[in-house]
């Protein structure tokens, strides 16, 4: 064997490994038989991993972690190879399901295959308030599993008084101690709600603003940012909770789960207020991708969707992460099996449910639309806010 | 270090050096510290626990990610190291040394995000052209060759790691005398035998440390992999997506602590091993030299 | 079996260019089988390039090389009937002496016992039998070169190439190694091609010496002819301590010429060279053939075989003493005498006459 | 110096005296040695060059289409992005200077007063921090620098400060701290390589001539080690400019560098802008390396190796 032998063999090895790799790549993904679910951590309840969800739904679930960013999921599902990789995915209703359905990335659902669909919240039925958040052109394309009205978390221990208005978030007394989410969807909608209700800006519909309305909102934020009002913009639950629990910030617009984690971390008195101007309400939905349908994973999907609409899931998510259940009958379920939660968890759950009703009752609420009509304006202006 | 140098100043410099290494190591030590804390990241009270280390191997997501990362590390090393070896041999024999050096060391100077996004767009376009080509020719053989997948991640990581292994191998080759290859050829060995019997055993240390270095680099790399990988998750992308979502789980800290502990042990043993060998060699040499003098 | 009458090495108009630098220019040389042939010359003269081209480490730009009558221009070193000993660094540091010497045989695929038997014999020949398990860095310079020799001869190749094998050794060890090399060659009987810039080493070991300078083969001959009767001016200037004089031919009569050098007329044997009047020529006289004429001083008439100058100084070198004399035109001549001169020497600057035998002065035209 | 390319090429025997054209196999072998370069040309040089082409494409809803528009460049140069880019350049230079001030003396110390065999091992110590992934290292900085972080609490306990310093995190200083801690080892490596060009006797000669450490550094070490130092500084400068991680996690208002702009553009599906930023970064890098090569021939860095 001589030098040329070595080089030819070495080149063969190179080509061999390239073929093996692509083979390995596809082989490995095929070998995972379970439902390939692209979802964030908040889509599971119970145990640290997905074992409880799998037990309830009777299918095996392979989750791939998903971040909250809307444009990332659009890029993955439409331009990227999302359909080849994922059978089902979650995202914000009232916007994302229209975008994905319009691009044929997700398919219409046959709700007859979801027994628990009967106890879904009435507002989701035909003509209901949030009916269109799970439909695209009248056809049901998504199943809601959690929803909430996002509000302001504040450090009651330090501040000493209950905050009931978004004014506090932008007030100079919290200069350098305020934070908002690093995503244009929730942040711009929340600010727009405040500007509209407080009369400081002429904004018609905070969840689908015109270019000029986006400019007003962003310039308001840029002005504050230049004055050093915002300590930072948080990304993800751990970051958001860390800011509050370490008293890095005293007020922060965030998800309720962040307020719960922050309060639980060091036992400080961190609360989630009810804002008089209104809240940005949203829901998270689970969808069946076209690829999932083609690979015949729809049966497994329907079983999972059934669990998401079961009172068991509703009770668990309310107790654990503090999200609003999407179905009725949760209270009866909790009474039916008293040993599931200890006494004070039940008490917390009912108090949370009460406050959620109070928040949902506020007139100014408006939906968070992650896929507004002129999304380009949102993105360009948001880049300016980030760069300010 | 001659005899007249002020011994105190010398020790001061040594302490400064070790202090700098320690400050650079604080994140590593901090991660290990957290991995034993029951109530995790950022909590005030500290409760020692080994629970998370137990959880590592039951956490399906983490193990799956680990498997992908190991596969990626092995494949990248198997391709990058022979390439670095060939490139080093070419560099040694080339008369125009500027071109190979520039081409092989330039990836060091390209920031990760820039390299990642440039390759991402390039591969997407390449894939689109291949698909278009496939449609023209009416066959779909290479439709999915360059879609973002294991292959694109491997190519990106090869480009990232080859400068490091190229330099490491070049350093060990610096000490090799080419006359020995010629002597082997004069003894009747052909090109390959001369390389395998004579040159390789002497640069083996460099090649192995280049392999270890590449595996560690691939293991800890996040930016380029996250931009170029397909549907699978590697070790770092799982950690990050957890960080950006519900927060790094206890076992994630445990896993990264374990990985860095293993890597440090590997590098540490190389240091100790070379120290011991140098010690024994010099002692043997001294022993041999003794009789002549007496 | 290579046919007997073909020369071991036959180099035909070999040229080697590195870009525009000409390392070898149209070299022709033939080395007979079993001959100890030395390539002597200044460093950078092209002798190593010639050796390495014969060994297959360089490809000729023009011309051809035949080993034992076969053209080998395109063959790599391992496919040629040659093997090589290097100046240094050529032993495999990670192998013991036995492994080093036996490597060629292992590559050739000989069975283990045959290899160890031949290796022991080769080590015995070079006197290293008790160093078998040492590593190269545990050997002295001389021992390392002996291991290289053993490693080469164990292969029973036809031609052994040596690239300045003794350059790295100190003077005394080099002397002993020269004799060892000569005896080894006689014992083994194969062709040796030895490159060196050391004249003494060349003359000790060589059957024939080729002088190579700036890419050209200047001259070829046995040690005695090269030393006593150098053909070319360069050979004279390089081998031995020759006085080089240049002058103009003033008259040609029969077999000798009169050359005007620094004011004196010298008669030199033409040696059959085509020379005409007025031509610039070079003359060479070995310094030991030049004697100080203390007897009749400068007033004796010039007889064509002597020259006058002023005494400079004398240098005592133990065996010999060199007397330096400055000629009127500034050139310096050396007279080297064996005996220790006890009688008084002229003071510096005193006029002196140098005489020599007419057969000792040689005419060179190029 | 024999040329391995040619000797390795003629791998087999031929009938005696036959001088036919070299077979395919012999011409193939030199190509095996060029394979790595071809790979790098195909998958590194070519894609980076293509960024210029893609940066002038038209932006569509989800991808881009061939066309010619300078909108991306206009979008970059006439917006806050340019200010951020120049700002991040300024802070990168600051971190280069800090890294050099802290790191280079270590390289000089290792080269000067540590025995030859131990030198490589000491430099190896600086590889240890890379055993943890770059992202975890930066994330771990947050609890150290934040309001009730490690530094603030220790300083408060020692009474040096009475209320926590908030400038350490979510500010440009935070980014610079992150850059220095991430890239300091690289100045030690490149310094160590650069010091290879400074022969050992220099230190004895300078002591002999009574040259103080500062003058020795300025007049002797700096000129000799310049190529290595320059390469190390360019490495840190360009990475400081391009690593999106640091400003993203440690930076606050306005702390946005080219890398972050590019990745944000990718997430916002504005691929032409991302390519424009990459093209601008590559041109900055090329000019820097070209200037460096003109000032001090950069191949000198690797000469001690070959």
Catalogue the unreliable spans of chain C. none
| Measured distance between first and last alpha carbons of chain D | 12 Å
Largest sheet of chain D: 2 strands, antiparallel
Structural class of chain C, please? alpha+beta
Question: So what's the overall shape of chain D?
Answer: globular
User: What is the fold-level CATH name, i.e. the topology of the largest domain in chain C?
Assistant: Rossmann fold
Q: Strand sequence of the main sheet of chain C, in spatial order?
A: 6-7-8-3-9-10
Determine the oligomeric state from the structure. Answer: heterotetramer
Count of DSSP helices of chain C? Answer: 8
- How large a portion of the residues of chain D is in β-strands, by DSSP E? under 5%
Instruction: Just give the CATH class of the largest domain in chain C.
Output: Alpha Beta
Q: What percentage of residues of chain C falls in helices of 4 or more residues?
A: 10-25%
Structurally, how many domains make up the residues of chain C? 2
Q: How are helices and strands ordered from N to C of chain D?
A: HHEEHHHHHHHHHHHH
What is the averaged pLDDT score of chain C?
Answer: 88
How many strand units of chain C? 20
- CATH homologous superfamily grouping of the largest domain in chain D: MetI-like
| SS class of chain D | mainly alpha
What is the number of E strands of chain D? 2
Which spans of chain D have pLDDT < 50 for at least 5 consecutive residues?
1-19
What is the assigned CATH homologous superfamily of the largest domain in chain C?
Answer: P-loop containing nucleotide triphosphate hydrolases
Annotate the secondary structure layout.
The complex is a heterotetramer of chains A (388), B (294), C (366) and D (306).
Chain B: H1 7-35, H2 51-56, H3 60-93, H4 98-109, H5 112-137, H6 150-174, H7 179-186, H8 191-220, H9 223-228, H10 235-244, H11 250-293
Helix pairs in contact in B: 1-11, 3-6, 3-8, 3-10, 4-6, 6-8, 7-8
Chain C: E1 9-18, E2 21-31, E3 36-40, H1 47-55, E4 62-67, E5 70-71, E6 82-85, H2 97-108, H3 112-125, H4 141-153, E7 159-163, H5 171-188, E8 191-196, H6 199-205, E9 208-213, E10 216-221, H7 223-228, H8 233-238, E11 242-253, E12 256-261, E13 264-269, E14 280-286, E15 291-292, E16 306-316, E17 321-326, E18 332-337, E19 351-355, E20 362-364
Parallel strand pairs in C: 3-8, 3-9, 6-7, 7-8
Antiparallel strand pairs in C: 1-2, 1-4, 4-5, 9-10, 11-12, 11-14, 12-13, 14-20, 15-19, 16-17, 16-19, 17-18
Chain D: H1 4-9, H2 24-54, E1 58-59, E2 64-65, H3 71-77, H4 80-113, H5 116-125, H6 134-139, H7 141-145, H8 150-158, H9 172-195, H10 201-209, H11 213-242, H12 245-250, H13 258-267, H14 271-295
Antiparallel strand pairs in D: 1-2
């Amino acid at each position: 064997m001589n030098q040329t032998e070595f080089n030819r063999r070495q080149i063969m090895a190179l080509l061999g490994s390239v073929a093996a790799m692509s083979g390995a790549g596809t082989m490995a993904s095929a070998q995972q038989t379970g439902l390939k679910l692209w979802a964030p951590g908040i889509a599971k309840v119970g145990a640290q991993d997905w074992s409880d969800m799998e037990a309830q739904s009777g299918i095996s679930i392979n989750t791939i972690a998903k971040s909250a960013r809307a444009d990332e999921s659009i890029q993955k599902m439409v331009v990227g190879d999302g359909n080849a990789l994922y059978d089902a995915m979650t995202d914000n209703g009232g916007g994302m399901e229209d975008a994905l359905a319009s691009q044929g990335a997700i398919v219409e659902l046959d709700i007859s295959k979801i027994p628990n669909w009967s106890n879904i919240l009435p507002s989701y039925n035909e003509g209901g308030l949030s009916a269109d958040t799970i439909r695209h052109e009248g056809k049901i394309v998504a199943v809601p599993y959690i929803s909430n009205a996002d509000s302001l978390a504040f450090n009651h221990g330090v501040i000493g008084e209950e905050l009931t208005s978004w004014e506090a978030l932008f007030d100079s007394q919290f200069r350098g101690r305020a934070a908002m989410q690093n995503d244009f969807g929730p942040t711009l909608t929340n600010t727009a709600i405040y500007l509209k209700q407080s009369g400081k800006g002429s904004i018609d519909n905070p969840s689908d603003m015109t270019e000029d309305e986006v400019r007003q909102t962003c310039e308001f934020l840029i002005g504050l940012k230049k004055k050093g009002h915002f300590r930072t913009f948080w990304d993800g639950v751990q970051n958001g909770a860390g800011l509050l629990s370490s008293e890095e910030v005293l007020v922060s617009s965030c998800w309720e789960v962040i307020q719960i984690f922050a309060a639980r971390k060091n036992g400080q008195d961190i609360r989630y207020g009810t804002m008089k101007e209104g809240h940005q309400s949203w829901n998270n939905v689970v969808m069946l991708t076209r690829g999932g349908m083609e690979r015949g994973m729809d049966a497994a999907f329907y079983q999972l969707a059934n669990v998401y609409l079961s009172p068991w899931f509703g009770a668990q998510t309310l107790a654990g992460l503090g999200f609003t259940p999407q179905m009725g009958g949760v209270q009866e379920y909790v009474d039916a099996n008293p040993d599931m939660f200890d006494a004070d968890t039940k008490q917390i759950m009912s108090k949370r449910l009460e406050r959620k009703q109070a928040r949902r009752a506020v007139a100014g609420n408006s939906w968070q639309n992650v896929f507004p009509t002129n999304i380009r304006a949102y993105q360009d202006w948001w880049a300016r806010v980030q760069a300010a | 270090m001659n005899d007249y140098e002020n011994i105190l100043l010398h020790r001061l410099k040594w302490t400064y050096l070790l202090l700098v290494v320690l400050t650079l190591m604080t994140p590593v030590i901090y991660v290990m510290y957290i991995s034993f804390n029951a109530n995790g990241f950022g909590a005030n009270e500290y409760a020692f626990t080994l629970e998370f280390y137990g959880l590592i191997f039951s956490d399906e997501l983490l193990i799956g990610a680990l498997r992908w990362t190991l596969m990626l590390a092995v494949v990248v090393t198997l391709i990058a190291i022979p390439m670095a070896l060939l490139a080093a041999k070419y560099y040694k024999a080339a008369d125009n040394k500027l071109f190979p050096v520039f081409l092989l060391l330039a990836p060091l100077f390209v920031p990760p995000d820039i390299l990642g996004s440039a390759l991402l767009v390039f591969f997407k376009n390449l894939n689109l052209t291949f698909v278009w080509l496939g449609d023209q020719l009416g066959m779909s053989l290479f439709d999915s060759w360059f879609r973002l997948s294991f292959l694109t991640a491997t190519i990106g990581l090869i480009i990232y790691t080859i400068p490091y292994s190229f330099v490491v191998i070049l350093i060990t080759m610096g000490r090799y005398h080419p006359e020995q290859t010629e002597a082997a050829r004069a003894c009747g060995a052909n090109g390959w035998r001369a390389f395998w019997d004579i040159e390789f055993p002497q640069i083996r240390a460099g090649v192995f440390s280049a392999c270890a270095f590449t595996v560690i680099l691939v293991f800890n790399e996040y930016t380029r992999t996250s931009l170029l990988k397909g549907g699978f998750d590697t070790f770092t992308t799982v950690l990050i997506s957890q960080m950006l979502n519900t927060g790094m789980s206890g076992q994630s800290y445990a896993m990264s602590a374990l990985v860095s502990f293993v890597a440090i042990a590997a590098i540490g043993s190389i240091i100790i091993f070379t120290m011991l060998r140098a010690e024994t060699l010099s002692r043997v040499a001294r022993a041999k030299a003794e009789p002549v003098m007496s | 079996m290579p046919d007997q009458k073909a020369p071991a090495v036959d180099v035909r108009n070999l040229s080697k260019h590195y870009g525009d630098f000409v390392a070898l220019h149209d070299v022709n040389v033939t080395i007979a089988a079993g001959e100890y042939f030395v390539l002597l010359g200044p460093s950078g003269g092209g002798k190593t390039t010639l050796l390495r081209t014969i060994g297959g480490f360089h490809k000729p730009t023009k011309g051809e090389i035949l080993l034992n009558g076969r053209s080998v221009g395109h063959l790599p070193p391992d496919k040629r009937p040659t093997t090589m000993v290097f100046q240094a660094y050529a032993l495999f540091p990670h192998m013991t002496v036995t492994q080093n010497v036996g490597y060629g045989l292992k590559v050739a695929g000989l069975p283990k016992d045959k290899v160890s038997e031949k290796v022991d014999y080769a080590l015995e020949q070079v006197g290293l039998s008790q160093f078998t398990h040492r590593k190269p860095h545990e050997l002295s310079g001389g021992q390392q070169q002996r291991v290289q020799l053993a490693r080469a001869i164990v292969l029973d190749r036809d031609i052994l190439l040596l690239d300045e094998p003794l350059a790295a050794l100190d003077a005394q060890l080099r002397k002993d190694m020269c004799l060892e090399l000569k005896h080894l060659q006689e014992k083994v009987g194969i062709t040796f091609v030895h490159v060196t810039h050391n004249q003494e080493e060349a003359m000790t070991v060589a059957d024939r010496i080729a002088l190579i300078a700036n890419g050209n083969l200047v001259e070829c001959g046995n040690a005695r002819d090269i030393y006593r009767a150098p053909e070319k001016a360069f050979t004279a200037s390089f081998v031995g301590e020759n006085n080089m004089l240049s002058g103009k031919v003033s008259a040609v009569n029969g077999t000798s010429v009169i050359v005007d050098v620094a004011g004196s007329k010298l008669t030199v044997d033409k040696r059959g060279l085509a020379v005409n009047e007025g031509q610039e020529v070079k003359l060479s006289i070995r310094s030991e053939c030049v004697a100080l004429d203390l007897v009749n001083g400068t007033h004796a008439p010039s007889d064509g075989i002597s020259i006058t100058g002023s005494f400079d100084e004398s240098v005592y070198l133990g065996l010999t003493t060199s007397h330096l004399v400055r000629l009127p035109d500034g050139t310096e001549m050396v007279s080297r005498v064996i005996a220790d001169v006890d009688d008084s020497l002229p003071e510096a600057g005193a006029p002196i006459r140098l005489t020599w035998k007419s057969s000792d002065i040689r005419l060179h035209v190029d | 110096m024999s040329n391995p390319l040619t000797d390795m090429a003629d791998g087999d025997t031929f009938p005696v005296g036959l001088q036919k054209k070299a077979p395919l196999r012999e011409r193939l072998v030199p190509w095996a040695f060029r394979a790595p370069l071809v790979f790098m040309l195909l998958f590194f040089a070519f894609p980076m060059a293509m960024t210029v082409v893609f940066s002038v494409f038209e932006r569509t809803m989800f991808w881009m289409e061939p066309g010619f528009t300078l909108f991306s460049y206009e979008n970059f140069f006439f917006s806050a992005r340019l200010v951020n880019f120049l700002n991040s350049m300024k802070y990168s230079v600051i971190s280069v200077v800090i890294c050099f001030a802290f790191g280079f003396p270590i390289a000089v110390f290792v080269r000067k007063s540590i025995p030859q065999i131990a030198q490589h091992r000491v430099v190896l110590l600086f590889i240890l921090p890379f055993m943890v992934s770059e992202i975890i290292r930066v994330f771990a900085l947050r609890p150290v620098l934040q309001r009730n972080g490690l530094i603030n609490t220790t300083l408060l306990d020692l009474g040096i400060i009475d209320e926590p310093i908030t400038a350490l995190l979510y500010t440009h200083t935070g980014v610079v701290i992150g850059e220095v801690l991430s890239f300091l080892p690289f100045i030690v490596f490149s310094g160590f390589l650069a010091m290879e060009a400074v022969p050992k006797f220099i230190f004895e000669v300078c002591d002999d001539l009574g040259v103080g450490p500062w003058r020795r550094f300025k007049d002797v070490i700096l000129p000799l080690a310049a190529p290595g130092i320059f390469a190390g500084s360019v490495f840190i400068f360009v990475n400081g400019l391009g690593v999106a991680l640091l400003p993203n996690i440690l930076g606050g208002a306005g702390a946005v560098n080219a890398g972050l702009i590019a990745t944000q553009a990718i997430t916002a599906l504005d691929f032409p802008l991302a390519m424009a930023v990459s093209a601008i970064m590559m041109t900055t890098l090329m000019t820097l390396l070209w200037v460096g090569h003109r000032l001090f021939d950069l191949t000198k860095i690797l000469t001690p190796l070959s």
